[in-house]
Amino acid sequence: MFKRFKSYFPNGTIKKEQRMNRRLPRKRSSGKGLRIFLWVFILFISVSGFLGMAKAEKAKKLVETTNSNVVKMQKKEAEIIPDDYRNQKVVLFADAFVTQYLTIPAAIDQREQYQKELQQYYAKDMPINEVPHDKAYRKLKEKEYFDTVVYKDFAVVRYKVTYESVGVTETEQKVKEERKKGKKTKEVVKKVDTEKSAEVTTLINLPIKEQNGAYSIVENVYFTAIPSVVTTKTKAIGNGLADEKEVPLDEVNDVVKFTNDFFMKYAKDSLKDLAFVMAEPEGLDGTKVFDRLEETHVYRQKDKVIIKTEAVFKEELIAVENKECFTLTLIKTDANYFVEKLTHTLGGEK
Description:
alpha+beta; single chain; about 350 residues; about 35% strand; five-stranded antiparallel beta sheet; four-stranded antiparallel beta sheet
């Protein structure tokens, strides 16, 4: 009992008994919601990335398809005249038709034969215009192929033509006529044909269709004015290397000397001789005389020298100058230079 009593005073003081914590433990916060949010976020990012890649791939394919279609269209436009309409046969057909069509005989009794021959050029059951049975006629003076425009099922071959239309008017005129040989004359009234002509230069358009290598006119022939083929809106070709650093001529005296010597040979030497100084021999073969160089520019590109210049040539017997543009690509040899490439332009390929 004493021991038990002593346990209440271990150090001579009263020992307080600890109260029992009767509070309920707080509920631990669960991480499940956070985990769900993270997975949803990750899934969203993954799906967005996948959709973005899919859209990018789709856009890439669309661009490739568009570019492919553009190339096809460009090739199609470049091939303006298909093989069916790009041969000597269609030219022979069109040439013969133009001559036949524009030549209406003056003799009325030849008109029927003219119509029969003309009908052979037309498609089956296609009527042609009747030629009037008067004394007027038409004659072709010049013809020249102009171009060919191709449509889906046929082509229009166009010729530049010059023809003369001749109208004939019958008039009454008084003429003197002898009654008998050596006797007095008298005035009589006679009917006389008076011609009046007009020259026309125009385009004649021939709608032509090919079938099994043969051709026929499939619609009415028509005429149009000759379009202008001249323009001043284009820009002249300039030096293609104008923006690059140029080598001063006094630093390349050997190059300038070679260029002058080369053009002297270019003007007078044969192709056989020119093969010693250039890769693809060409020249004037003595038809002109080299006079001088103008506007010479020298550039270095790695181990090559580029010359852009204007060479002036003259006729041998008359003082008529002809200025020509050249670009020379030179390579150095043991003894001198060699023309690896020659083009007749200052621009074009750089």
